[in-house]
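User: I want to check something. If I give you two sequences, will you return the structure for each one separately, not as a complex?

Assistant: Yes, each is folded on its own. Here is the first sequence with its structure:
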Amino acid sequence: MTKLDAWLDQHHAAFTAIRRDIHAHPELGLEEVRTARLVADKLREWGVEVTENVGKTGVVGVIRGKQPGGRAIGLRADMDCLALEETTNLPYSSKNPGRMHACGHDGHTTMLLAAARYLAENRDFAGTVNLIFQPAEEGRGGANAMLADGLFERFPCDAIYGLHNTPGMPVGHFGTTVGPFLAAADSWKVTFRGVGGHGGSQPHRSTDITYAQAHFVLGLQGIVGRNVAPLDTAVISVGYIHGGDVNASNVIPSELVLGGTARTYSQEVRDTVERRIAELAAATAQAWGCQAEASYHRGTSPLINEAEQVAVAVAAATAAAGAENVDGKLRPGTGGEDFAEMMLVRPGAFMRIGNGVNPDGSFTGLHTPLYDFNDAIIPAGVRYWVGLVDQELGQGLRAVAAE
């Protein structure tokens, strides 16, 4: 048993209690007042330099090593919850109606807090560790808020690292890859307008926007199939269609709104998808004698892992879990991650950690009312964070045998 192993055995229960406390008090992005206060208070208690209100509710802790060295790295965890009603009925389930930690940010925050305490107690490394507790990962722009508040000017980082739990991946397993790892997460909206009318007695006097909408939705997949190269990736999905009135089903509506999401890995494909959605909407509307107004909102950028940082991350994960439990060529996904905005300005790597899978292969996915972070993976996450500091800033933090 190493020194770190013994330390984790001693403190695992305490950090499980912290995680469950955060879980019971979820807060939406840029509203993480209680969570940020808890983070800041714990860091100060352990002797970490703390700066609050970075990007409104963000917290940054700074731990300086005892050895000489000018290199600095950033370790990032997210703190916000989702607008979702929890149905787990756990003893520590959400006390805030319509709010739930359904993505595991409570666990991410806890794992980085635990690593912070260990690093603060064991500073035998050269350089600086910046602990970045980010608000508002779930669509409210927390990464850009911290960047606009001078994150890397105030807390310089030569490289940055992120970690996210993954249901369906076994406990103790890690995975990442070089290059595109997660997608740009954009949204689009199209409004069709025409002349409504009586759908039973005089449909010919209307310009039926439901026809236009139907052909537009079918045509969207033609963008993916015929405008995007076969080896590139694009996803276009319709998330809502609103038109007419359920109490007036014999009326052809004069306005119909629909929208959805688009996922891409490259700027070129992203540009193509945005342009073609607008062109398809306009052409379809013209074909059916109505008008269309299209808008496209660019959300988080594609997350691109740098080769140098992936090598460091794989080495850290291997030290934490063994080579047989680390996949350095994990298949990318088309989920979005706000950490990508930080990685546009500093090189970095994003790692997945297994949240567990049932013997029959089933699991509860992220962003669902029954999801819960697996407290059993807290030690593995801490080993990974400490391993990154070992790899980047010097050896000696985890390999020393416990006395």
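And separately, the second sequence with its own structure:
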Amino acid sequence: MSLYELERDGKAQELIRLLRESDNERVTARAAELLGNFDDHDDRRDVVNALVRAAQGDSEAVTAAAIDSLDELGDDAITELIGSMAGVDLEDDAADWVKAKAYMQALDADVAELRMAAANGLGTLDQADAVPKLAERFEDPDSRVRARAARSAGKIGDSRATTPLEGVLTDPKAAVRREAADALGNIGNRQALQALLPLYEDDDERVRRIAVGAFGNFENDRPVDYLVEALSDDSAAVRRTAVYSLIELLSNVPTEQSHEIRDTVVEKLSNTDDRSVVLPLVEILEESSQAAQRRNTAWLLGRVTSEEERDRVIDSLVDAISGDDQMLRQFAATSLAELGGDDNMVERRLLDIVKDDGVDPQIRGQAIFTLGKVGGERSRKTLDRLIDDTEHDVIRKKAFSAISKLGGRR
């Protein structure tokens, strides 16, 4: 029976026997690799014990395969290996600082895979004292270790990692730069975010996307120019991320700055020929669960939508008017008023809401208010009749106000 068939049939004990007894290094390395797929197996305890022993053997190939498999099996498995190597009994209830100390010791191991595993393990522990030790690995000769160390430093999120991570942003390996950029975005202090700005031009698409995605965490308009530049990126994923970051930026900045930044964003977007910004904005309005994002998106859509996207945007804004969020309804109404148009599409859609007695009076009132800005003779006649027919004071007051803007009653 082949090794693949043993793994397929769940013969964990047979693979363990080969790992322990075979004289063929290729066989033992392959057995160690396959045992990493036995996470839910009844013999998992035996699998972990066998891999821990194999990882401390003389064969580099078998050691690497065993460590990779222990990493696949989870934190408890790799912790057992590191505890064994450090001569420390790391039980499940061991204090995190005890585990971290053992992991930091393993960061100096000769085998790169063990350094990788140790770096991974430190990322699961909230131990800020591990950051300086992880930072030492940013210059590891193995790029995989550098990448894992940067990732874990970002997970811990201690600001002491910021300056060392800045140095990793110029690493020759794109995978390492990606992890460093992501880590700085997670740390999110002013220095970290500032360091990410130049990466919107990185050669690697994923590095650009990670950096642009972090720009939304700023609390000022510093990244607006960079985000607008990113809207012309060759990668659709980067362009989409830039749109999301612009909306996130508007949601994060202090209220006293938001109006100025909104105007800056509109100005920049109006001066770009790339219209791919609108569809992601519509998706945010329709799908986001965050109120601030949806409100800013609704406001922005009325000011950056071109004729070719207008119908889709109107549909989305009309749906927003029918929602529960009063402020979102107001933002959507102002954008519908901005879109207006000679085709009367906005007017027709709003009249559908106004005429529906089953719609909440507050929602109908918002639609009536907007008709006062975009309606014509048809709206005036409808509202004139509505004043006499409605039993709702809110609707009657809104209708009086709107009809006065449309020429008054006749």
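Because they were folded independently, the notes below concern the second chain alone. The chain is about 70% helix and 0% strand. The chain has a mean pLDDT of 88.
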